[in-house]
Amino acid sequence: MQIHHNGPVQALGLFDNPFIRTMRNNKHVSLEKVVGRQAVQPPSFRLCRVRCLSMIISSAEFITSAVKPEQYPPPAHSEIAFCGRSNVGKSSLINTLVNRKHLVKTSRTPGRTQLINFFLINQALSFVDLPGFGYARVPAAVQKEWGPMIETYLTSRENLRGVVSLLDIRRIPGREEQDLMNWLAAYQIPSIWILTKADKLSKTKQGKQLPAISREIGLPQENLILFSAKTRQGRDAVWEKINALCLSA
């Protein structure tokens, strides 16, 4: 895999922390040695254990958009964030999970999500759509704001239970995805990894891409969920993972 050193995420400094740089240079350095037990503080999960909703959706609504903590809604419910490259299918995944066609607006133009968008599901669970990364046509001024905005959310949101990280099954993950994985691990933020657009590949090609992506990001194949908004493949598996995160908090 060729590594490009000028990707938008790296330029923003979103994952360009000392421990990430060390892990890039030495793949054999353990996370504990780089981070240290006192160096990184994960978000505080002080809220009481809350039972998440089942896959039966009775309500789903947009709550607000935000760019800084004082604009976030009160942390009254368990929260799941969705993160990935622009045009990877975050909006389609959320819409499929909640059985709505237009809860999250989809766009053919990557990079349209430029705010942190909050949604309330069944009056019991919050979904958060984070800005997509990796699209060069987004204005530079906006790109510079995304890194600190996303990092602040992920490290300060006390009711955050985990991050659903999306990868396009047709593409081998690049530096930005590798940095995201290392960054989430360093901050001890649980994650669910989804391979989107599974319907775009034949079963034979899926069988080749799945192990290739697994090797590239260092996760077992069984930890990767194949998803298709068109066929709804993987919807129940994603909900099971989300429920597990909420119940383990």
Question: What is the makeup of the main sheet?
Answer: 7 strands, mixed
Enumerate the spans where pLDDT stays under 50 for 5 or more consecutive residues: 1-15, 17-23, 26-52
Rg estimate, integer Å: 17 Å
Strand order of the largest sheet: 1-3-4-2-5-6-7
For the secondary structure, the number of strands is 7
What global shape is seen?
Answer: globular
Could you state the order of secondary-structure elements as H and E? HHHEEHEEHEHEHEH
- Number of discrete helical segments: 8
How would you state the average pLDDT, rounded? 78
Helix content: 25-40%
Describe the overall structure:
- With 249 residues, the chain is of the alpha/beta class.
- It contains eight helices and seven strands.
- The protein has a seven-stranded mixed β-sheet with strand order 1-3-4-2-5-6-7, sandwiched between helices.
Task: Walk me through the topology.
Elements: H1 8-12, H2 18-25, H3 31-35, E1 60-66, E2 78-84, H4 90-97, E3 116-121, E4 125-129, H5 140-156, E5 160-168, H6 175-186, E6 191-196, H7 203-217, E7 224-226, H8 235-248
Parallel strand pairs: 2-4, 2-5, 5-6, 6-7
Antiparallel strand pairs: 1-3, 3-4
